[in-house]
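Table S2 (continued). Query chain:
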Amino acid sequence: MEQLTNLDAGESVFFSRQLESIKTKVYNVLYPEYKATSLLPVDTSAGPGAETITYRSFDRVGVMKLIADYADDLPRSDVKGKEVTIRVKSLGGSFGYNLQEVRASAKAGTALSQLKANATRQSYEAKVNELAFFGDAEAGLLGLLNQPDVPAATVQTGVVSGNVTWLGASPKNTDEVLKDMNDAVRDPMTLSKGVEIPDTLLLPLDEYSYVSTTRLAAGTDTTILQFFLQNNPGVTVEWVNELADVAVLPSGGGGPANVMISYKKSADKLTLELPSLFEMLAVEARGLEFIVNAHARYAGVQVYYPLSMNIVEGI
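Corresponding output:
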């Protein structure tokens, strides 16, 4: 790093070393409360220079039929495809230290505060998480909850209880809750004739807490969640704060309502597009402050096989 304006050689070296240390520590900080990047396959293959990302999907068309020995009107098979292009957007933030903070830290031999850099990284994590679930219609970015072709339906009323939601003054009974969970992962199998088999079920936190602590029936220690997992091998159930009180529902209706989502956690089915992850740029002297800008590139959640995902509203 070149010597910075208003810093002598020793202070400049100190500042450079401090920023290198801060960058290393920031990249090692994890924020588990933002779960999108752990729940969705992340794809960085487009690279930081990409302005758009294009993918192609193909489908087979055509049938065979019984024919006579000299038939000349054989049915033709073919492949049809479509091309989808999405734009990549930039995310930006910054943090800084004023001249006196740098000089005081250099004189005392103490480290510069890590908190500002951590706050900037956390802001990045929070924004990616928000966009991954809700998207941004104005920017043309898709999230899990605004996919145009993914099936979205309202949860069915319980046959016995006559209720819809799992919690509250008039909740469904445990068997009805279990049925809703089973339906959420089995409906994609039914709609796709067994092609799509979800392996992940996302619930709002309160509903997850309920099924993980409530016995399925009197006289047993088996919870609703335990029974579900025993009978749906290979399926993982996770809680997500963003699925509670969803204001704009995937079906187009108005909320708030709680939502659950099932999907196949595979990069072949869907990806969270992050062409360029969080990076800190070179320090910039601005007046009596030294600014470090942060940057990333983002392109939304892309669901390549809409029937591999299922959204159920109103649990």
